Amino acid sequence: MDSAPPISKVRWFVRALIPLSGFLIAGLIVGLPLGWLARSGPRMNDQEDGGRSIRDARESYLSDHPNGLPPEAMNDVYAYAAVLARAGELNDVQPWFSRLDPLVAKLPDSILNPNEKREIASINPAFQGAPLAWAVALMPNMRKLPAATPWLWTRGLQPDGTWGKDSPYGGEGGVICFLGGSSTFVPSTTRDNDISLFKWGTQERTHNIFEALPPGTRVGEYTPTAEDRVRIANWAQRHAWITSSKGLGWWLLVSACSLAVARVQTLWIKCLSMVIGVVGAACFWFVLAS
To answer: Which of 66, 58, 63 is nearest to 95 (CA)?
Structure first.
C-alpha cells in the first residue's frame, strides 16, 4: 500500500491554526473568568465583611456620640480600634485583619486587654503593632463630610494609586470604602473607569487618595518592617507557581496542536488533544487575568 503524501508546511500551518484558534477561544471562556475571580473575588470577600463591621461600629458610636470620635482615637489605627472596642461596638479582631495577608501568622485574642474592665481597658499588647489590613483616615466626625470621601482602605495604598508589594495582596489591588457606605475592590486607583476619586473640595479627578481627604487629615496604618519585606519576598517565591502556569499553558497548547494535526485517526487521541488544548489555553488566559 502506498503511503500518503507528506503534508506541506503551509497546509500543516493552516491545519494547526484551526485547532489553536478553537483552543484559545474555548480556553478564554473558561480561563478568563476564573482568572478574574482569582484576582478580585477572594480579596473582595476577604475584606468586605470586615469593612462592613468596622463601618457599622463607627456609625453606632457616632449615633451615641454626636460630637464625634475622641482625640485619643486620632493617634493611630490601633487607638481608633480601641475606642470602638471600649464603647462595646467592636472588640472582635477579625475585621481588622486579612486572612490572605502573608504577614499574619496568628490573630490576637482581642483588641483590648482581657484582664481589664472593658470601658477603661488598655490595648492588648498582641494587637498593638500587629499587621492590620486596613488603613483608616483619622477624622473626628465623618458624618459632616461628603459621601464620596474615602475613609477606609486596604493597607499599603501609595500616592501614585498603586498598592505596595507589602500590602495584604502583594500589590495586586485592594478595597476602598467610602463614607456613603459603598466599597469596591480595584487593582489600582489609576484608572478612572474603576473608581472615582476627587481632589478635596473639587470635581477634579485624582489617583492620589490622600488628595481626596480634608486638608491635614492623618492616616493610621501598619508600616511593614524590613523583616516583613523579607517574609513577603519568601512568600512570593513559594507562590510563583501561578506565574509558571503560563509556560505550562503554552506547552499544553503546542502538544494539543501537534496531536490535532498528527495523522492519527484514533478517536481517543483526537479527544485527548481537545482536552489538553482547552486546559492549556485556560491556563494561559487565567494567568493573564489574575
So the answer is: 58
Mean pLDDT of 186-193: 78
Q: How far, in Å, CA of 30 to CA of 83, rounded?
A: 47
Q: 221, exposed or middle or buried, with CB in 10 Å at 0-12, 13-18, 19+?
A: buried
For the chain, the structural domain boundaries read 14-36+240-289, 42-225
Q: What is the pLDDT of residues 224-266, one digit of tens each?
A: 888 888 888 777 666 555 555 555 555 555 555 555 555 555 6
HEC assignment per residue over 187-222: CCCCCCCCCCCECCCCCCECCCHHHHCCCCCEEECC
How many helices (H) and strands (E) would you count in the chain? 5, 5
Q: CA angle, corner 288, sides to 251 and 103, nearest 5?
A: 110
C-alpha cell at 289: 487575568
Q: What is the dihedral of CA 258, 262, 268, 272, to 10 degrees?
A: 10
pTM value is 0.71
CB 133 within 8 A of CB 97: yes
Any idea what the Cα angle at residue 218 is, between residues 205 and 94, rounded to 5°?
95
Q: Give how far Cα 53 sits from Cα of 80, 97, 110, 151, Å.
A: 14, 12, 15, 14
| Other residues' Cβ atoms within 10 Å of the Cβ of residue 141 | 12
| pLDDT of res. 170 | 84
